[in-house]
């Protein structure tokens, strides 16, 4: 096989998905929980949380929401995992005036991600001086957050609190979803930084690559779902 053929197949394999694939585990509605989609949902949320913890432990910059959670933890008696859950509940409360409905996945998002963020922070060694390992932490963390997002999104059990806020504001105002997301994440990033959360090259890498990581992993999930049918 020629190198050009191998390269073409690799690019096809890594091609980002433009849509959310429908899988054999996609729920009929936000509360249609089955043993299969439950296990897949929890797995996706767990690796999402571990990915976030890798960014935190890299010490060179968290994702925007983790900058906020970390900053809040520095001024309260709560751990960063607990602050992640508290922020998620507060964001969920903002759904009420926007008439957005939560699902089983929404509630699970709050509990499981916060739990695994804390597990990761407690068990993964923090880095402070090895930039190559720190960048490796960030890269793997972005990959895990992208994979976790793709997995739990395809379950169809409802968006996480942050995604639900973003989409509901878009529906109510007509403002482009990219602009809504940018405004929300810039706001929490600034607040988190003022509170003392870690902002740096890892934050920039996350902002640049998380969209591609999610889209590419949606493609992986689609291919896996098609093969398993």
UniProtKB/TrEMBL annotation:
UniProt entry tagged with the keyword Lipoprotein: no
Pfam families given in the database record: DUF6198
Transmembrane domains' residue ranges: 38-60, 72-96, 103-121, 133-157, 178-195, 201-221
UniProtKB keywords: Membrane, Transmembrane, Transmembrane helix
InterPro entries: YczE/YyaS-like
Xref: PANTHER family: INTEGRAL MEMBRANE PROTEIN (PTHR40078:SF1), INTEGRAL MEMBRANE PROTEIN-RELATED (PTHR40078)
Name under which the protein is recorded: Unannotated protein
Gene source species: freshwater metagenome
